[in-house]
Amino acid sequence: MTATAPTAPSEESSPSGPSPAESDVRRAEAPATPDERRRLRFCRRFGFTGSLLMAVGALGCGATPASAYNPLLGVRVLGLPARLPTVSLAIAYVGMGMMVLAWLWLGRLAWPGRVRLTVRQLTRILVMWAAPLAVAPPLFSTDVYGYLSQSEVVSRGFDPYVFGAAQALGLDDPLVASIPTIWRTTPSPYGPGFLTFGRLVTAIAGDDIVLGVYLHRVLALVGIGLVIWAAPHLARRAGVEPIAALWLAISPLVLFHLVSGIHNDAIMLGVVFFGLEIGFRRSWILGAVIIGLGASGKIPAILALAFLAAHVARERCLASGRDPQGKDGILALVRWGALVSATGLAVVAAVSVFSGLGFGWIAALSVPNLLRSWLSVTTDLGVLGGQVGIALQLGDHTDAVLALTRSAGLGVAALVCALLVLAVLRGRLHPVAGVAYGFGAVFLAGPVLHPWYLLWLMVPLAASVTAPRIRGVAVAVCASVALLVPPTGNDFTFRAYQLPMAIFAALAVAVVPLLASRGHTPRIPPRRTDEDTEQPVTEEVS
């Protein structure tokens, strides 16, 4: 059974004028000017230089294994940055700023209505920028060592949803020594699907921590590759220019936190995007199965099933001549929602059983709540309520208030998601946009919010929303949040002075590349009309 794109697109999901594919066909074979090629070449090299600086800085300030197990210590040349952590941090900051600037300049050629690039060309540039980060030590997070330690717990026959890494492996284990103290004794918060892949990584890498890190990065790159493949296809269905979608989808947040930081969100995003495209193009059953596989690794992916179901219900109503906005639409939504959800949940259950890990992951979903994330609105309100109670001498009831605000936040998110599903059913919202806003509601109202969680909102938003203001806000968020997290994945206990010193040094050094960029950055091209015969810049990426 097949499911096609919505036939009655909404204001956000329908393009004004011809489709992006039709616009591409209408362009003539006029070559780009030498000045445009020169400016694009400078932008590409500027971003690549920033990526190289981040890779060099990662040797000294990256999330390398614990000192006693760091393979870079004592190595000539490569071991030097580790002896100069503040300098390495400043270098990484300069590289971060250069990459964000280069991405923004590239966006001048990839903005809807002003596109001057091709999908292939943009993909090559993004791969070029990602390459140095893909071979350097991790930045921004030590989570990859948590993945390795939890997979090792499974390999040794322990239940990862009962035993923490320290209990199963011992405190002197190099993997345990490389993760933050708060997570050494906690069970794994990840589903059996992800730990099954992790067990395969452990079987291949053995005791080689470096090889294990790179194998997890390969998994992350596969997820990003799925996003790069699916984003242009989903964008065409939603009336978004594929180039604009791909540029916003692969933002500095993706390069920093998924390529360099190796968060498993890359796998989940890739699987969800792939599942949605297959569900629209081929069969809702295949799409639900693929999304279910993603949810078996990280359960929030299950939310995408609701919007796939709404899409299928609408298509079935329109195909049979029934009104999806009336009672028939609600009945169809209930029916197809049950079928699609049952298919996805059956896959999650099958993975849980056949992996041998069972359903302990359900109880372990609350493990991340141990961290009080200051980016989470519900957590901030709970802590504030607890402090007010202390100030009024009513006692410390922070935990109780936190439980209340977090539960209320999830309730609000559930209500928002239900309204979004109805909007998709009635043709007022594209299903991919529904996925974006649904993920945004869940994470913004959730108990924990890390900067890279915003990608669950930003990546599908890039491929589904055409409103210039919304896309402008998304660009501003991606650029600013990308600079929010320090590049080092380690804490600054007893050395907090390094951060301000590195930032001031980076600001001073950044003057040089900024001066060098004057007169060389891509200009904003004129808005393209149906009659325009401009062709994208055809500069080959070398």
From TrEMBL:
Low complexity biased stretches: 1-22
Subcellular location as annotated: Membrane
Membrane-spanning parts: 46-66, 86-106, 126-148, 209-231, 243-263, 283-312, 333-362, 407-425, 437-458, 499-517
Residue stretches of biased makeup (Basic and acidic residues): 23-33
Main location: membrane
Classification via Pfam families: MptA_B_family
Annotated segments matching region Disordered: 1-33, 522-542
Keyword presence, Membrane: yes
Topological relation to the membrane, as annotated: Multi-pass membrane protein
Keyword Glycosyltransferase: yes
InterPro entries reported in the protein's UniProt record: Dense_granule_Gra7_protein (IPR008120), MptA/B-like (IPR049829)
GO molecular function list: glycosyltransferase activity
Keywords: Glycosyltransferase, Membrane, Transferase, Transmembrane, Transmembrane helix
Record-stated family: Belongs to the MptA/B family.
Protein name, per record: Polyprenol phosphomannose-dependent alpha 1,6 mannosyltransferase MptB
Organism listed in the record: Actinomycetospora endophytica
Gene it is expressed from: mptB
